[in-house]
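Table S2 (text version). Query chain:
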Amino acid sequence: MAYSNWGGKVFLNNKPMHTFCDESPLDLLDLSSSNHRINLILNRTYHCILGNSLNTLALIYKSTVAAIIVNGSLIYEYDKVCGIGQTKVTKKGNRSLQLLHKNKKFIIKKYGNRKKISVEFSDFEGANWIAVCGLEFGEGYEKW
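Corresponding structure-token output:
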């Protein structure tokens, strides 16, 4: 789904996950944490939600990765690596970033002037999550 001019698409093992777009993780997955900061993050609406638990969860708003949570800990928030010492930047390019946290690899790519981003990872159960999010893009987007 797209609201305003921004939207996204989420895929789990190459299957479209329509309900994981334009939603709050708190409402969609009924997640909560003992960490107050994470609960604030979970209570917002995002264009793309990747993952279905606090074991591996990535949240995208517009063309920014708002948060990545692994094993209940915030490891990445709005273009900043958190959890110093545990999360490593293994590749960094002009428009791409690869994070490694406890043998979980997250690939983040930004595309040109269209303000579009993609994120992909495999969760601890082996499921492959991919999302693409950006301007004038997403489920249900139609030209005005």
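Notes on Table S2: The chain has a mean pLDDT of 83. The chain has two helices and 14 strands.
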